[in-house]
Each structure stands twice: as C-alpha cells, then as structure tokens.
C-alpha cells in the first residue's frame, strides 16, 4: 500500500484540507466536544489538568 498524500487531514474528496477547511473542521469538533460534555467552555483555549 502506498500513501497518496502525506497530509494528516483529508477532505471528502481525498485531498488535503486547506487552512480554512481545517479551521472549520476544528471549530465544529471543539463545539461538539463542549456540547457532549467532553470539555468545558473554560477548557476550550487552555490545556486540561
């Protein structure tokens, strides 16, 4: 098996995410984590301890 891309995050089309696409994905992920109770709003921009 040979990787077609060395990108860590790919879009639905299999191409690497753009900076804007990554930012959008990250914000959705963080919002979901808060909504599900995995992190608090206060932990959003700070490391958990």
By secondary-structure content and strand pairing, the structural class works out as mainly alpha
* Overall pLDDT score: 86
DSSP strand count:
0
Order of helices and strands: H
What characterizes the major β-sheet?
none
Radius of gyration: 14 Å
Structure description:
The chain is mainly α. The protein has a domain at 16-49. The chain has 1 helix and no strands. The longest helix has 17 residues, at 19-35. It starts with 18 loop residues before the first helix and ends in a 14-residue tail after the last helix. The model has no long low-confidence stretch (mean pLDDT 86).
Name some characteristics of this structure.
1 helix; mainly alpha; 0% strand; single chain
In short:
The chain is mainly alpha-helical and 49 residues long.
SSE topology:
Layout lengths: L18 H17 L14
